[in-house]
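writing this on my phone so excuse typos. first protein, seq and then structure
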Amino acid sequence: MRNQQDYLNKASLYDLLAGYYKYSNPSMHIHYYQKHIKYMNLALQAQQREMNLSSQPAYVRVLHAVPDAPSVDIYINANRVLRDVAFKDISDYLTLPAGKYHIDIYPAGTGVNTLISKKVKIEPGKVYTLAAVGTSKKLQLLPYIDDPSVPNGETKIKFIHLSPDAPAVDIGVKGGDTVFPDISFKQATEYLNLTPMTVNLEARIAGTKNTVLDIPGVSLKANQPYTIVAVGFAEGEPGLETLLLKG
């Protein structure tokens, strides 16, 4: 969809053309002047849409995906919003006005040494999962965009690779076709629209048939988006597993 500036550029062009033909060709003058008015109106409508969008809140949830990190407390702009978030925990969505935020993550019950301190920009109308990823020696906070919209009667799913020591993987139907190919650590796929179903999936080392993790009985219900997240260590404890998140 074009933005306000695109329409203003068009309107300016047609205004120049209308002026050029004002005395030499009245019918062309009227033709281009009407186009000028049309695009000025479209620019005003685009401005209104942009103003409406900028006032929409954003929705943010937090996922603890660092397998060897302790439970944490999460602060936004120095206010504690979540406490005692353990590995594999996913919060409910928090409603936030669009803007820039400072997020600090501390070991639960402490407020001295941050595990992560990061500034994030939250866009209006967007839905985010903020994932703490990596290992206790190298933590990051990464944003992933969620999309709650689903065509009526359908379902959809995406995959995020958050196992810090696992190789790139293909996600496929067990013993069958690949659904999401070659996903590396920290990467997320696009959503895939599907008919509601229950399916057995598996993670395979990318480009091979070597299964590293079975993902059995994935139940995908109508009118619901899902995200499969790989967490844990491929080598070590806690071991590799998947989370099925709504959204």
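second protein below, same order as before
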Amino acid sequence: MAAYEMFAKVYDSIMDQTLYDKWTDFSLRHLPKTAERRKLLELACGTGIQSLRFAEAGFDVTGLDLSAEMLKVAEKRAAAAKADLVFKQGDMLDLSQLGKYDFVTCYADSICYMQDEAEVGDVFSEVYKVLCEDGVFIFDVHSTYQTDKHYPGFSYHENADDFAMVWDTYADQAPHSIVHELTFFMQDSDGRFTRYDEVHEERTYDILTYDILLEQAGFRSFRLYADFKDQKPKADSLRWFFVAKK
């Protein structure tokens, strides 16, 4: 099955919900919200929880995701909340049909799913094109410490009444890359369980590489933070945050 097809069915159950509070708080500290500037594009919006948080904070939100299954969940969530959100299926490597936005975000290390640094640079260029002048782009990625030291050997198991999941992570061959192997056991309508397997590959780069790629895309400046806080990265920081300005 395609990446995230089965993951979408259990994603919200296994996701640490407190992370959405952290992403929201970080965003609100770094995204100026005015009546004139409020159009926000959320890349890799997934099941729409973060999109809804942005809408509740007063932004006009469009969510983009590659997974149709994820977007089905997002649309149901927005309808239940009676929120005016727009969701589009698409690839962040091509944003040419999406119009202009004041702000773009890309969280949950989604940039790390790009195959190589050329694709990361292509995403940055696409974001630059859809941003209005003085627009802000915020994204997070795994630190090299996370991919090299923290994640290899990681194992997570989840058991519920209607599904079970085994999640193991290993170091991959390319520098600063990891492989997540996911096995799901989903209960069918007749009560039996069916096994599904997915493989998710992620890769990050050193800070200088991201710096160069942002500059090549046209961004005139960026600020760097770590682990949801307004502080510089440390040697053992797990997640880097970039706040780039067009």
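The first strand starts at residue 39 and ends at 43. thats all i got for now
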